């Protein structure tokens, strides 16, 4: 994801087709050392493509995804997760009743 973000930042910075060096420069500016293999794969995959067209195509695919309640299995797994969270609550500590006498100098009942 960081490679795609760096590529997108290069496009926003004015490069219509960022090179591997452009992406490396963005990544190194935030202290990330680029892996040459991943960087090469990204540049080969996006070669000859316009980023705004890829984003538009991806957005249209996202609009076809159903955002309803989901299947029974998904709901059941969600319920299991909630139950697990409830079970993981830490037990509350009980306060011990410690008789320290009257620490403010009052009368003792002894």
Automatic annotation (TrEMBL):
Domain of life: Eukaryota
GO biological process entries: cytoplasmic translational elongation
Protein name: 60S ribosomal stalk P2 subunit
Key words of the record: Ribonucleoprotein, Ribosomal protein
High-level lineage: Eukaryota, Sar, Alveolata, Ciliophora, Intramacronucleata
Region (Disordered): 86-110
GO CC aspect terms: cytosolic large ribosomal subunit
Family, similarity comment: Belongs to the eukaryotic ribosomal protein P1/P2 family.
InterPro entries linked to this entry: P1/P2_N_sf (IPR038716), Ribosomal_P1/P2 (IPR027534), Ribosomal_P2 (IPR044076)
Organism from which the protein derives: Euplotes focardii
Gene3D superfamilies on file: 1.10.10.1410
GO molecular function: structural constituent of ribosome
Ribonucleoprotein keyword on record: yes
């Amino acid at each position: 994801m960081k490679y795609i973000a760096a590529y997108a930042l290069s496009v926003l910075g004015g490069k219509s087709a960022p090179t591997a060096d452009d992406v490396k420069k963005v990544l190194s500016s935030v202290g990330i050392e680029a892996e040459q293999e991943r960087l090469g794969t990204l540049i080969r995959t996006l070669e000859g493509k316009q980023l705004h067209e890829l984003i538009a195509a991806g957005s249209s695919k996202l609009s076809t995804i159903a955002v309803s309640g989901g299947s029974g299995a998904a709901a059941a797994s969600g319920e299991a997760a909630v139950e697990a969270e409830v079970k993981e609550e830490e037990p509350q500590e009980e306060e011990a009743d410690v008789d320290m006498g009257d620490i403010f100098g009052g009368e003792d009942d002894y």
